[in-house]
Please model this.
Amino acid sequence: MSDNAKIVGWAHSSFGKLEAPDVESLMAGVAGAALEHAGIEARDVDAIRVGVFNSGFSKQGFEGALVAPGLPALAHVPSVHVENACATGSAAIHAAMDFIAAGQGRIALVVGAEKMTATPTAEVGDILLAASYRREEAAIDAGFAGIFGRITQHYFQAYGDHSAELAMISAKNHANGVHNPLAQMRRDFGFAFCNTVSDKNPYVAGPLRRTDCSLVSDGAAALVLADAETAAGMARAIGFRARRQVNDMLPLSRRESPVAFAGAHAAWARALADAGMSIHDLDLVETHDCFTIAEMIEYEAMGLAQPGEGWRVVRDGLTTRDGKLPVNLSGGLKSKGHPIGATGVSMHVLAAMQLCGEAGGMQKPGAALAGVFNMGGAAVANYVSILERTH
Model:
């Protein structure tokens, strides 16, 4: 599916343990800034789509109505809350693009946010299990990390122990995050630390170590979408050469293989076919590294390696900062942070910054085509975007 909707502006908070007390305040920090970046006024906005996972992080629901208190000029703009687990941000973007494609309006504001760090650590794991199939998976130790720990065990049983390559992915993303001023953890830990189990890097859900797991984060991101005619008169426009969503079974027990990420593979294959290109035509990818094993399997899903050989990709240096296809120049969820509802919006914003040459120390020189992969749950809701600058 291709679209005439273009990204014409954005804003992005820092990620981490922030002083902002709730998602309302987080959204207030980016909504107006995104409109300003796009060069438009609140009166120009025809629709708002809000991405917040929540699921117990806050007793305040009705998140679609929380943008207006921070920007009262938006009080009468139709606003809808969208949720799709860890892919909530991308789901909100798709909903806004569908609104524009249907001819219901010309400009849509998308805001994604999450406040996670105010919740006790013991409760965070259980809240995140809402993105799993609780009927069968709720008793797994270590919560959602435990689910990916099991996926890692299956992968290692099938293809051998590749803990070292997982550490290489972690070290790569932390090294990239040093260059991202918005990242939660701007520290290059190095391969040796990431590959060593220690008091500072214990097992969280064996074989996954702390450095294999993304961070509990607060943050928000927003972007403005406009139809092609409206975007033509704006300072910048990032187009979607293709976008696809493909789902997979929520219960891992009902998949042919828990390590195949079949829905992610189909989403990538269909998006690349729609765009008329191969994965090797892209200049960079922002992918969903909630755990390092996820990034490794996503290499296979996007077509960089055959099943069971994703570990070769990082070992060969293909996805490093100076590789042929840099992956997660932002530091990824691993270093940047993973405030659930904000993540998909953040990934699109950071890819757009690359295509506009506005990524600062993260910049891939001459970047013209970017891929984004955002998933909800264990590769259940899979979203792929192929982005290019149109002017």
